[in-house]
Structure formats: structure tokens, C-alpha cells
Amino acid sequence: MPKTAVCIKILKKQGQTALSLSSKLGLFDKSLEIQHDQGSLCIPLFRQPIKAELEKLLKEIPNLQVSQADFIEKSVVHESLAQVLENNVPPDKIAILPQALDVIGDIAILEIPTPLLPYDKTIGEAILKVHKNVKTVLAKAGAINGIFRTREYNYIAGENKTQTIHKEFGCQYYVDMARAYFSPRLSHEHERVASLVQSGETVVDLFAGVGPFSVLIGKRKLVKVYAVDLNPDAVELLKLNVRINKVENHVFPILANAREIASSKLKRVADRVIMNLPETAIDFVDAACQALKLEGGMIHFYAFVRAPKTVEDLENEFSKAVQTAGKRIETFLVARSIRETAPYESQIVLDAKIAMQ
DSSP secondary structure string, 50-90? Predict the structure, then answer.
């Protein structure tokens, strides 16, 4: 039987934004199927949005409509990974199954503990059964390394490939996991930073990769974004992503060393600089400061912090690097952990407003 529910009606191209925001607000009813027609979507909600929630929705999607519609209830949830594997993997091994996996486009990536390596193909096939949208399963075969931040993978199930198309907040990204770094775990950071950018700004994305920050900003705002990366493969994918997302007039890919380009062609052009190179971004604070306009601007800085080091220690380290570069911190607008990356290790973001000394 169809179920009548409150819903928001939006254009299909606004679907990812609407789903993300309605989920954050606790409104999206995932037990009901989303309705599709030629050019629009109807997203079912648990209830009528209150005034404050509606204002947030309208801020991001000004043309949305709130109405009611009949929706089909989803079928029973599929078996869990542990349930699928219970007859094929010993119980003591089931207990150490990976609790999380990254899904990038139609590729699932996981880290398999050493005791489970003899069962890797079995686990891969189980993942394909549980996650119907996944076509390929890859296992991490080492750490991220090298100046291009790439990682090796072992193919374990499905189609043998490392290329896919990943969708995020209304943008599409061609990704090749073997050639260029990409993390779906930063999706909300991509959206958060894009929401802070003001029309008319010039943004320098010093370590742009395939473009998740740059392309989304160029899609959302009337801005100029210089997207810089040292990895030729990443820049080729970035150029493709700029074209397919139709942001050629706003996003300009550059194959270059961050420090060299910041001290030459991009010197004193930026209102805002993005530094998503958490392993070594601290070594490039001088480059970010050179890219900022003479009067200063905003830096979004990402780094890993391992205990016993704290966020406050990172703030102090960053402040000293800014001072050495001839600028000063006016204020930290954000200083917090955005995700755990390992035991006793987190990725931290600092949003720092930079001024002249």
C-alpha cells in the first residue's frame, strides 16, 4: 500500500544537495522510495519542516516546494555482511570483519586484517551481495605514499578496475584510485567550505587532486578558482571534471608545484586558500600566505594530529608558520577534528583568518 507523506519537490540536479541537507536536519524518511519524474524528484520527509529547517532548506535550494505525495515503502533491509559470511568464515574471524568501507562511485575499498587475508575473495563476493550498487571490491595493499599521495590496491571481487564516476552534491567526478588520491570521507568538508565562499572571490586550491573542492565551489558560486596539483594524472582527471561539470569559466586547473606557483603566477591573488595535504601541509604555509592578497584572507588548513599532540598544539605550530611567512593570525574561526584516521590520530581542520603583520 502506498504511504502518504510530506515531501520536498526539487529539480533532479539538486537531488544530492537536498538529500544531504534533509538528512542532516533529520527529515529524510529513508524507509520510503524517492519519486522521480522527467525533471524533478520528490524526497519523502518524516514530518513538516519547522520554520528554521525550512529556512535552511530554502537557503540552499530557493525553488523547492513542500507538498504531500504517495510513496512506495522500501522492502526489508538486506542481510548484513556478517550474516552473509557466517557459513563461510569461522566465527572468530567474523568478529574482526572490517566495520567500515569506502564506496567511491561503484567501487568499494576496505582494509582487510591479516588473519582474514585467506578469505579476501569470499569477503569481496559478500560485499557485492550486500551492496547492490557496488561493482568492484578493492583491498588496500599499503599506505598512501609518494609526492602524488597514491596507494596500491589488490583486486578481490567484481570488475577488475580502479576507475569510476563518483557523485557528490550535484557534481560528478571521474576518479582513478590507482592514479590520484580521493576520499569520500571529506564530502561534508567539500560542501562546508563551498558554502563559505562568497561570489566574486578568488580561491586558490593548492592541492586540488581531481577537484572535489574546486569543482563544487565553481558550481555553486560566481568565483575564480585556481586548482593546483603536482600530479599530472590528477590534473588530467581534474580537467575532465571541470568540463563535465561545466565550470570551465570558473575553475582553472594548473599542473605545478604549490610553492613555485604561489610565489609567481598566483602571488597575492587569493581571498581564500585551501590546503588539503594533511601529511605535509604545514611545510607549505609560506606558499599559502604568498598566494593570499596583500591585506590577507582565509586559509582552510588540514593536518593529522597524533596523540599526545593536541589541536591547540597544531594551532600554535600553524601560527608560528604564518608569522614566519610575514603574516599573522587574526582569528581561528574553526579548529576541530573532522574524522578519526587511525587509533589516537585525527584529521584536523583549521579555518584561519589571516591579516598583515
Answer: PHHHHHHHHHH-TT-EEEEEEEPBPPPPPPPHHHHHTTTS-
If you compute the radius of gyration of the chain from its CA atoms, what whole number of angstroms results? 22
DSSP string covering 14-53: GHHHHHHHHHHTT-B-TTBPPEE-SSEEEEEBSSPPPHHH
Domains of the chain (ranges; CATH) run 3-71 (3.30.70.2580), 81-161 (3.30.300.110), 181-356 (3.40.50.150)
pLDDT value, residue 80? 81
pTM of the predicted model, to two decimals?
A: 0.77
Residue (of 182, 176, 190, 186) closest to 225 by Cα position:
190
pLDDT in tens, 35-46: 887 788 899 998
Q: Is the dihedral of CA 188, 194, 197, 199 positive or negative?
A: negative
Identify the bridge partners of residue 168 per DSSP, sorted by sequence position: 171
Q: For residue 274, what is its C-alpha cell?
A: 585551501
15-19, 96-100, 285-289, range with greatest mean pLDDT: 285-289
